[in-house]
Specification:
Blueprint: H1 4-8, H2 12-25, H3 31-42, H4 48-60, H5 65-88, E1 93-94, E2 97-98, H6 100-126, H7 130-156, H8 161-187, H9 191-215, H10 229-232, H11 238-245, H12 249-261, H13 266-278, H14 281-300, H15 307-321
Length: 324
């Protein structure tokens, strides 16, 4: 598997320029806001989403100024949702750094999220990027719906496999889909091309989220998130859903009772993890993840061969084989 730097090689210059444009897009005359946005930029992660934008543009045509607008718009809106998510989840950390709400409290964090959202909207309007704005706005709507659907279902723990895939399609896959669709739209007027790249991104995003859910069942903390955290939060993910569907009624009642009423008891959470392993929930989820990856790569292979297509395929593999 290639490293991120190797994958990034065809777009290394563009990514460096994007960093500068992204920083500029957040600038404000309010000193407090500038301080917070500087902190946000400093702790940004792997920047896989902008990579999806630039590589998709390269696959579909030429990277241009509109591609920078697309990558900046998505990163602004994505960052806004992360800042708001940390408030909603009452999270004190993100990627090993203090969250904005942990350092500056909820009120300021919500306002910063709103500011980032407005910067994204203004960037689109000022540059007449209405097509890109439409794609990304649809993604933000789906992310909100997916979160709310998950919250609604968590109350009754009645998530079946179809509902699970709908939740992750909206919550996670819709954003990666919009990265690929925006990249295509920035480089080509062909809506069919943009839609094809959207579907590629959606398939990749679903595989990405299944991988994320599998981290929950690793007994070490290499993943950067504690084992069993989804169980503690009463989130029904694919390994658990499959295992419950392949268990007796008494087993099902016992496990659901733990998830509902004893999800902070680490000994009992460990019981759920063992149950999932014994029932084949992990291997089933891994199999499904690989199915979505293969479908994404098969779709990508319909595009002309190029360094961008090769890197995009490697980025998909990196997203699914990552260790954290």
């Amino acid at each position: 598997m290639q490293t991120l730097d190797q994958i990034k090689a065809p777009i290394a210059t563009e990514m460096d320029m994007f960093e500068s444009k992204f920083r500029d897009s957040m600038k404000s005359n309010v000193a407090l806001l500038d301080k917070i946005t500087h902190y946000i930029v400093k702790r940004k992660g792997k920047k896989m989403r902008p990579m999806f934008v630039f590589l998709s543009a390269g696959v579909c045509g030429e990277i241009n100024e509109s591609t920078y607008h697309a990558a900046t718009l998505i990163e602004l809106l994505h960052t806004a949702t992360l800042v708001h998510d940390d408030v909603v989840d009452d999270a004190n950390e993100r990627r090993g750094f203090f969250s904005v709400n942990a350092l500056w409290k909820n009120k300021i964090a919500v306002l910063v999220g709103d500011y980032l959202l407005s910067r994204g909207l203004l960037l689109s309007v000022e540059n007449r990027e209405h097509r890109l704005l439409g794609i990304v706005s649809n993604s933000v709507r789906e992310m909100s719906e997916g979160e709310l659907l998950q919250i609604e279902k968590a109350r009754k723990l009645d998530i079946d496999e179809a509902v699970y895939f709908e939740i992750i399609r909206q919550k996670t896959a819709s954003l990666i889909a919009s990265c690929c669709s925006c990249g295509a739209a920035s480089a080509s007027e062909d809506d069919k091309l943009s839609e094809k790249m959207r579907l590629f991104g959606e398939l990749t995003g679903i595989a990405f989220q299944v991988k994320d859910d599998l981290f929950d069942y690793e007994l070490t903390n290499q993943t950067g998130k504690p084992s069993g955290i989804d169980i503690k939060e009463k989130k029904m993910t694919l390994p658990l859903i499959y295992s419950l569907n392949n268990s007796t009624n008494s087993e099902k009642r016992y496990i659901i009772n733990i998830v509902k009423n004893h999800n902070t008891d680490m000994k009992m959470v460990a019981e759920v993890i063992d149950f999932v392993k014994q029932k084949g929930g992990i291997s089933y989820a891994e199999q499904k993840m690989m199915e979505y990856q293969d479908r994404a790569l098969s779709l990508l292979n319909e595009f002309d061969e190029s360094v961008y297509r090769t890197s995009l395929a490697e980025l998909v593999k990196f997203a699914i084989q990552r260790k954290k």
